[in-house]
Amino acid sequence: MDHVRTTCSLCEASCGAVMTVEDGRILKVVADRDDALSGGFICAKGAAIPDLEADPDRVRTPLLRKNGELQPASWEEAYAFIDNRLTAILEEHGPQATSVYVGNAAAHNLNIITYFEDLAKALGTTNLFTAASLDQNPRQVMSGLLYGDEFALYVPDIDRSQLVWIMGANPAESNGSMMVAPGFLGRMQKVHERGGRTVVFDPRHTMTASRASEYVPITPSGDAAFLAGVAHTLLKLGPPETTALSLVDDLGTIEKWLAPFTPAAVADACGIDAETIVRLATELRETEAATVYGRIGTTTQLFSSLTCWLMDMVNIFAGNLDVIGGSMFPKPLLAQPNTIGPSGVGAGFTVGKWKSRVSGAPEVVGQMPMACMAEEMDTPGEGKIRALFCLAGNPITASPDTQRMATAIDGLDLLVCLDIYQGETASKADVVLPSPPRLARANYDAYLYRFTVRNYGRYTQQYRALETHERSDRETLLRLMAIAQGHGWDADIDALEDATLVATVEAMTQLPESAIEGRNPKEIMTALRALEPMERRMDFGLRIGPFGDGFGSREGISLQTLKDSPQGVDCGPLVPRLPEALRTVSGRIEAVHDIIGTELDRLMTWLGEARPRFTLIGRRQLRSNNSWFHNLKKMQHPTRECTAQINPQDAATLGVKSGDLLRVSTPKAAIDIPAEVSDTLSPGVVSIPHGWGHEMLDGKLNVASANPGVNVNRIINYDEVDPLTWNGRLNGMPVDITKLAIN
Question: Which residues form the signal peptide (predicted)?
């Protein structure tokens, strides 16, 4: 019996864990008390890892569609099929007929997060879609425009904060998102023990709100109005002198833009009275270590990009950006665009480097918005998508306008899914390629460690060798790339990757201020080739990163350092990074953009508009994880029901009690869902969790099929998108509610 240190890697908290392993099976998972970041915290999802790994419904061998059914096949058969079908598509229709979709689960998989962009490049397509365009691109785009890099993403320095605002987020149940802070409730409690305060703004009295010092109900999509009122107040009070403020360009324009948004002007629209807005803004300014954090509720609504911009302005005008205890920029161990090369200046950031074929949707952070994915598949003409490689994702369930997405995917000539389940999307595939079990793969949460509340990293080594029927995700993706480039599936993939790495190393030796500037690329490659092929990129990124040893040129870390520290490597608390972190052309915070002025005009118009009778919002659930965690009996719990929560006053008006069937509708579609009367909801708000609706699985996932729930995305569409990023409006949708039946 072995005790194996690892990370949970099921959500963004990236908690340290210890697995008890016997005869190749994971028997138990507990928290790792020695982990440098999580320090002994783990949630119910982590404890369910043994069930996830042993789930009899998991895909463990390739599946190939034969006679209309997915049937077990060899890897060779699967690759040969893909080679033949993809080659024909490329020859007849060209590279733009291909596409890649990457789901949220890829963020927890080192190999997929490392290679997915390479797959799109190998295909030669700009049709790269990811779940980021569902829930986070507005935040990344604002960081790009203001700071020059979409991954210049600040997080609350919660371990040293005295005042924490939490907007549109429920980290008590999500465990934190775009913020790696394991055991968030414990961290909140320590804020209180230091004499500090936490304030939650949400239309729903969440679990996080129940533990906060103060809960402030807010109108769905009212975040921008509220923040505009706060920013107006802070400018009137006078922003403290900070490095961040000194770097802001054209402050006069910002003051002019925000002048109409007095607390009195925004109060009715956001549902927070003017006196409270002034009180909260004043407290935020006068508290030395304060931070404003927002998540999905702020990035999936009517004013997503504007809300993110206003959050930045509030953090700057309150004196809280890039100060200890405020909102700070992490410095990831792996090299990032904002930690290598000349500091404080760069190429800047743009949106719309190319456009989609049908609607002219803009490129955003190198990807296309999911809002245009279905139409690119179902609209005839040159460039119509005919092949989709779906990596660790389920767009049929995850995307708004579910039925159109499902129909569009049905019409593809080739669908290849890299997945562990036959979910709604994978069950329609021509080929399903399985990821290996947890014990047979190494991992490092490279994507998530960009958002840690300390500068930290933890590497989990591969526990056992791959069995004969298993393949690493690295090998799978490299073979798909080889097929796309015409080399054939049985090409020497190590040699192909080596050539790519040589080019990367050569570029870094020529980059000014790089840790290996001026070095001989052959020397660097000799050091890397001493490692296993799958370890070379990781070691390179660590050694040229901000804490790396520069391949012997300074004291620092390497991959071996992480291997020698299975409990994680802590490189210390966050430190102020401005202006060093900037990669704007001007070397300043570029806060003034025409789109912001346009969006503020739209917000001013919205302030005077009538509000709908009912407004839809989402709901986090501790024992759920998007669309793929519903097949485990251990995760079934009364708190994880797929219901429409409704305020008691609204329920009384409609004559509804818990268990009654409601029809929730928009002009285009309707769903029928059980009611749950809850005093956690503000009047006029209805809450439905996402990721459900497994009725189309036909028993492929036995537990999920027996408890399908309802997919709220059936009534959400892309009629309204964020004007800058084309993110869909998933929260704050007007809906109608009708009682259908009584228990």
Answer: none
Question: pLDDT tens, 359-389?
Answer: 999 999 999 999 999 999 999 999 999 999 9
| Helix 473-484, helix 493-510: angle, nearest 10 | 90
Supply the pTM of this predicted model. Answer: 0.97
Looking at the structure, do residues 474 and 497 belong to the same domain, yes or no?
no
Three-state DSSP string of 325-363 = CCEECCCCCCCCCCCCCCCCCCCCCCCCCCECCCCCCEC
Q: What is the DSSP letter of 700?
A: S
- Please tell me whether residues 529 and 623 are part of one structural domain: no
What pLDDT does residue 668 have? 87
> Which is nearest to 652 in space by CA: 621, 675, 626?
675
Residues 534 and 484 in one domain: no
State the CATH number of the domain containing residue 29. 2.20.25.90
> How far is 510 from 501, CA to CA, in rounded Å?
14
pLDDT given at position 444: 96
pLDDT (0 to 100) of residue 67: 94
Determine contact, residues 3/20, Cβ cutoff 8 Å: yes
| 380 and 477 in a common domain | yes
Is 125:113 a contact under the CB 8 Å cutoff? no
Q: Residue 529's beta-bridge partner residues?
A: none
Phi, psi of 174 (to 5 degrees): -80, -20
What residues are paired with 500 via a beta bridge? none
| Tokens standing for residue 248 | 């802001």
CA distances, 347 to each of 22, 564, 664, 705, 725 (Å): 52, 37, 47, 50, 20
* Side-chain-facing half-sphere of 678: CA atoms under 13 Å: 21
Domain finish residue from 10, 33, 54 = 54
Q: Can you name the residues that pair with 419 across neighbouring β-strands?
A: 434
CATH number at residue 632: 2.40.40.20
- Cβ-contact 377, 413 below 8 angstroms: no
Domain of residue 327: give its range.
Answer: 157-334+580-596
Please name the residue that has the structure tokens 């069937």. Answer: 661
Q: What is the pLDDT of residues 277-322, one digit of tens each?
A: 999 999 999 999 999 999 999 999 999 999 999 999 999 999 999 9
> Is residue 606 in some structural domain?
no
> Is residue 315 assigned to a domain?
yes
Q: Which long-range contacts (CB under 8 A, 24 or more apart) does 509-512 make?
A: 511/340, 511/341, 512/341, 512/342
Q: In whole angstroms, how far apart are CA 198 and each of 183, 290, 621?
A: 15, 10, 21
- Amino acid residing at 524: I
In sequence order, the 6+-apart residues with CB closer than 8 A to the CB of 266 are 225, 226, 228, 229, 277, 607
Asked if the structure places residue 607 within a domain, the reply is no
Which value, to the nearest 10 degrees, does the dihedral of the CA atoms of residues 313, 318, 324, 327 take?
-30
**Residue 617 and residue 297 in contact, taking contact as beta carbons nearer than 8 Å:** yes
Q: Which of 220, 140, 171 is nearest to 450 (CA)?
A: 140
Low-confidence spans in the chain with pLDDT less than 70: 699, 741-743
Shared domain check, 173 and 307: yes
103 within 8 A of 392, measured Cβ to Cβ: yes
341 residue type, one letter: G
* CATH code where residue 250 lies: 3.40.228.10
- CB contact at 8 A, 741 and 660: yes
Q: Do β-strands 98-102 and 387-391 pair in parallel, antiparallel, or remain unpaired?
A: parallel
310 and 373 part of one domain:
no
90: domain CATH number?
A: 3.40.50.740
Q: How far apart are CA 373 and CA 378, in angstroms?
A: 9
- 150 is a domain residue: no
Total tally of structural domains belonging to the chain:
5
Question: Which residues, 6+ apart, have CB-to-CB distance to 703 below 8 Å?
Answer: 57, 630, 631, 632, 633, 636
Helices (H) and strands (E) in the chain, counts: 27, 26
Are residues 662 and 643 part of one domain?
yes
